[in-house]
Design brief:
Layout lengths: L2 E4 L3 E4 L5 E4 L4 E4 L2 E4 L4 E4 L4 E4 L3 E3 L4 E4 L2 E4 L3 E3 L5 E2 L4 E4 L5 E4 L2 E9 L4 E3 L3 E15 L5 E3 L4 E4 L5 E4 L6 E4 L4 E5 L1 E2 L8 E21 L12 E24 L5 E2 L5 E6 L2 E6 L6 E7 L3 E7 L2 E6 L6 E2 L4 E2 L2 H4 L29 E12 L8 E10 L4 E2 L7 E3 L7 E8 L2 E5 L11 E5 L15 E5 L2 E4 L13 H11 L19 H11 L10
Parallel strand pairs: 1-4, 2-5, 3-6, 4-7, 5-8, 6-9, 7-10, 8-11, 10-13, 11-14, 12-15, 13-15, 14-16, 15-17, 16-17, 17-18, 17-19, 17-20, 18-21, 20-23, 31-40
Antiparallel strand pairs: 21-24, 22-24, 24-25, 25-26, 25-29, 25-30, 27-28, 27-30, 31-37, 32-33, 34-35, 34-38, 35-36, 38-39, 41-42
């Protein structure tokens, strides 16, 4: 084997030298800092290995065409203003102290073998192979994009992985469905990879999925008792159509705060609960994803799917409720249940009221063996009621979910509205096949505890029952005080949001009294109280 050592204080490849080609059958050494100047090409031919013992500098306008193998012991500094394809060969970073890669580089084969770590300082791409032999490839604030055909080889671990615990992402281009393991972790040596298996979708030009993470609790006040001190953020670009993806997130036992057995995979916005954590493998799974965001582990949020109608705003002509309060901009932007008798301290608020909203409601979860014994609230949340009877979260679309709820008995949801009598489910709200506790109060009087004493039939075709209007005091009774203390003082008000507006049209007129208070007068709600 022939060895050539270039041992000079500084190697400057000047403008007059158009090509510097190494065509050796052995290998060569660049002992000093190597500087490839403007209009200069350094070409390493196939079958040749060059070892750069110091830094390698590439000026703007300089070209590095590696078709063999280049081992770099120092830093790679690429000053070209546009992204540079550095050739079809292999780059091996194997220094003994921390190394950096700067500029915008396209590698075909990149090997990381430096226990002190290698950091990329700008956005880079790899078209074929990323080999993780030893040490961390640190993204920091830069993105590393792997081509559609690129693969990761080696044995990723806490000592050989991509550190993606800042704003930089590890990205993978997709042209079709398929699975890919993102070998990511944090700079403290915790290997916490993510696997994304796309089972559906249309992948446009430049389609990719990107992953990064944080080694800390996701900032959400609902994560209280059991959670992970780690979360991952998954984003996509140009992935459209019928997107389907199964995701797996690996965590380490040190991430767990409190009881691992209580953890579920959570997507945080909108909040969605997926499968329970696999405590044996320390993994979280979310199957059937159609959209992405931040994922972590937390005490299982209870997904609720509730349907309820209010008597007052209901129209038998449209078979829906009116949205007059929304149209007239009379619905407050913050939940209205902080006062008596609800005394709810939740901070739910929005910057605008979503489409098709009738009004705010308050959802309360109770558990017991039977509804008559369900006197204590496990959890409460303010939510929106849509005109089709669907109870939704503040985005106007998602189901209402509850954190830190542990059911030990049967679930009986309660619905409160500010001037309709509250109701409690007469039957157990069971989990359906999609993991949602669904309950429809409207299909018959038997759905509401107390039957016809707790609700009113509001339509015949379809048969539909709703919450009774005219409980302005919200004390569970429709008595004289609802008339004398609320309707009379408020009578004649227009464009208002008041308890005496029983049909929710923004006006307090005689029809609120004649159509709702008189027919419902004297009824006492059977809702159990402590």
């Amino acid at each position: 084997m022939k060895r050539v050592a270039l041992q000079i204080n500084r190697l400057n490849l000047c403008r007059s030298l158009i090509f510097l080609c190494f065509s050796l059958t052995g290998f060569g050494f660049l002992q000093a800092e190597t500087h490839i100047l403007n209009s200069t090409v350094m070409k390493i031919t196939p079958g040749t290995m060059i070892i750069a013992m110091d830094n390698l500098l590439l000026d703007n306008g300089g070209v590095l065409n590696n078709q063999g193998t280049m081992v770099i012991k120092g830093n790679l500094q690429n000053n070209n203003s546009s992204q540079s394809n550095l050739g079809t060969g292999t780059f091996i970073f194997s220094g003994t102290s921390a190394q950096t890669i700067s500029g915008h580089n396209i590698f075909k084969h990149l090997t990381i073998n430096n226990s002190a770590g290698v950091a990329i300082l700008n956005n880079d791409s790899i078209t074929d192979t990323l080999e993780l032999t030893g040490g961390l490839l640190k993204l920091r604030t830069s993105n590393l994009t792997l081509g559609a055909a690129a693969k990761v080889i080696g044995t990723p671990s806490g000592t050989a992985m991509v550190s993606a615990d800042s704003t930089g992402q590890l990205r993978k281009l997709y042209t079709a469905t398929g699975s890919f393991l993102f070998p990511v972790g944090d700079t403290t040596g915790n290997y916490t990879p993510v696997t994304l298996n796309f089972t559906g979708g249309t992948f446009g030009s430049g389609a990719y999925a990107g992953v990064n993470l944080r080694k800390r609790k996701y900032n959400d006040p609902n994560l209280i008792t059991d959670y992970l001190r780690r979360y991952w953020t998954v984003t996509t670009n140009a992935v459209t159509g019928s997107v389907g993806c199964n995701a797996t997130f690996q965590y380490v036992s040190g991430d767990v705060y409190s009881a691992e057995a209580n953890l579920y995979c959570l997507r945080m916005s909108p909040l969605t609960t997926y499968s329970a954590a696999n405590t044996g493998t320390h993994t979280l799974s979310a199957n059937g994803l159609t959209s992405f965001g931040a994922f972590t582990g937390g005490h299982g949020a209870l997904n609720s799917g509730l349907t309820v109608y209010l008597q007052g705003p209901y129209s038998t002509g449209s078979h829906n409720m009116n949205t007059t309060l929304k149209t007239a901009n009379l619905i407050p932007l913050s939940q209205p249940y902080s006062g008596s008798p609800w005394n709810y301290s939740g901070a739910e608020s929005v910057t605008s009221i979503p489409a098709n909203v009738v009004d705010w409601i308050l959802v309360e979860l109770r558990q017991a063996d039977v509804p008559a014994h369900a006197t204590t609230a496990l959890a409460r949340r303010a939510a929106f009621l849509l005109n089709n009877g669907t109870v939704v979260d503040l985005d106007g679309v998602s189901a209402v979910n509850f954190y830190n709820v542990t059911l030990t008995q049967n679930l009986f949801p309660v619905i409160w509205h500010r001037n309709h009598m509250p109701i409690i489910a007469a039957n157990v709200a069971g989990m359906n096949s999609s993991g949602t506790y669904a309950y429809d109060y409207s299909t018959g009087s038997g759905q509401v505890y107390g039957g016809a004493n707790g609700c009113r039939q509001i339509d015949t075709s379809p048969v539909r029952w709703g919450m009774m209007a005219a409980d302005a005091s919200n004390d569970g009774n429709i008595y004289a005080n609802d008339y004398t203390d609320y309707w009379i003082p408020e009578f004649g008000q227009t464009s208002t949001y008041q308890p005496g507006d029983f049909n929710l049209d923004g006006n307090i007129y005689a029809n609120d009294y004649t159509d709702y208070w008189i027919p419902n007068f004297g009824l006492t709600n059977p809702l159990p109280h402590p």
